[in-house]
Amino acid sequence: MKVTIVGGGFGGVKTALELAKNKQNRVTLISDKDEFQFYPVLYATATGRSHLQSWVPLGTIFADKPNVDVVLDSVTNVNPTKKQLQAASGNTYEYEHLVLALGTVTTYFGIKGLDHYAFGIKSEAEIHKLKHHLFQQMNEQRTVDKHYVIVGGGPTGVELAATLGSYLKRLSKDYGLPNRKIRINLVEASPRLLPRMHPKTSERVKKRLEKLGVHVELDKKVESATANSLTISGVPLNSQTIIWTSGVANHPFYMANDKHFEFAKNGKIVVNQYMRTKDGIYVIGDNAATPFSGLAQTALYDAHFVGHNFKLRQAHKPLKKYHPRLQPVVIPLGEDWAAFEWHGIRVYGWIGALMHHAADALMYYDVLPLFRALSVWRSRGDYERDYFTPTPPR
Ligand SMILES: Cc1cc2nc3c(=O)[nH]c(=O)nc-3n(C[C@H](O)[C@H](O)[C@H](O)COP(=O)(O)OP(=O)(O)OC[C@H]3O[C@@H](n4cnc5c(N)ncnc54)[C@H](O)[C@@H]3O)c2cc1C
User: Fold this and answer.
1) DSSP sequence for 11-64
2) pTM score > 0.90 for this model?
3) pLDDT tens per residue, range 106-129
4) Fold exhibited by the domain 110-246+334-394
5) Rg of the chain on CA atoms, in Å
6) Which residue in 15, 124, 129, 215 has the most C-beta neighbors within 10 A?
């Protein structure tokens, strides 16, 4: 069977690995980046931990899979009648079976100035840009910011808020700055942190962050941003470092090809019980309008499901129907504390942290061979010297 997959993230990579198990399958994986990104740990790399845990070359993942071809290109259009994809390079790719797993993009909800002045941590490039800014501030201007502002009290925002303060303290020491108070503000528009989780978890997480010295602001809306400030619910706040972790929107590819897709209210793609569109295209992971879409675990689950149905199809057996599955959620706040939630079970503290370490190990093992997964997992504890070498104070 010949399968073309677009997107080298959780859904796409896992589908390719599942299909590669059958040597008769021929898989083409088209992705616009040559690396696989472990989004759940990007906050750690953004705050000084090893980059090895956050991105792995696709070539490494598929090194021993001769029936998988990895193509570096950005897909722009699909023609289901001709069974063709067009890409930014100008190339056209024919397909037999197509799986789309393009992930999401950042949205600023039209808030003035944010697209220009806010930093992000959604990719290696965004993390590099943030670190370069901190380097310029601390090493060249010899100062720290009045406020380091994280916008968005979802999982990424709270995880980052828990580690940013200690990272900045370490950095300012490395750059030889006098000991100054570092102030971290976490701004969330809804009345509680982690609005998709249980209110008790929101409360525990807020207390934990406050214990770590984070200033949590709830029910506050960011209205605009400039190079030196942002306005939150009418009040200006002095800051040159605004980190946006708030909004994501479905990939613009679908709107650009809207006549081939049906959209749910949240902009995701409606799929049938086999995760297919009316044209027979598989859409999985963050792109699919399924109840638990938006999690790495769901993208992996979808990939298993699609891979399994390809196997059944080859064996001429009846296909399975998709049953959405609630996935466990773990939110680490520092090294030795995490909040865990699943089916009404809630665990906080160091036991939660153990569960978080185990969950990360399993996630690596989902896409990497055992020894490689263990070595990447072990690198999580390593601090790395930053991209930029401090110069001695003048
Ligand atoms: C900062 C952050 C932290 C997160 N933390 C967690 C967490 O702790 N736990 C959790 O379960 N989930 C977490 N998530 C969500 C999780 O990462 C996603 O749900 C998951 O990555 C979805 O998998 P996917 O395959 O649908 O998309 P992705 O993993 O995003 O993969 C999409 C792929 O498509 C590629 N691509 C995009 N456009 C094109 C194009 N035009 N042509 C070709 N390729 C293209 C991208 O480069 C990427 O490789 C986090 C997300 C972010 C952004």
Assistant:
1) HHHHHHHHHHTSTT-EEEEEESSSEEE-GGGHHHHHTTB-GGGTEEEHHHHTTT
2) yes
3) 999 999 999 999 999 999 999 999
4) FAD/NAD(P)-binding domain (3.50.50)
5) 22
6) 15
Q: Which atom of ligand 1 is nearest to the CA of 11?
A: 25
- Cite the residue boundaries of each domain of the chain with CATH code 3.50.50.60: 2-32+73-103+251-327
Burial class (CB in 10 A: 0-12, 13-18, 19+), 179: exposed
The CATH superfamily holding the domain 2-32+73-103+251-327 is FAD/NAD(P)-binding domain (3.50.50.60)
Q: Please tell me the residue having the least CA distance from ligand 1 atom 4.
A: 40
Q: Where residue 390 falls among pLDDT bands split at 50, 70, 90?
A: low
Is 60 exceeded by the pLDDT of residue 213? yes
> Of ligand 1's atoms, which has the minimum distance to the CA of residue 327?
11
Out of 18, 86, 91, 102, give the residue to mutate to test ligand 1, the one with the largest number of ligand atoms within 8 Å of its CB.
102
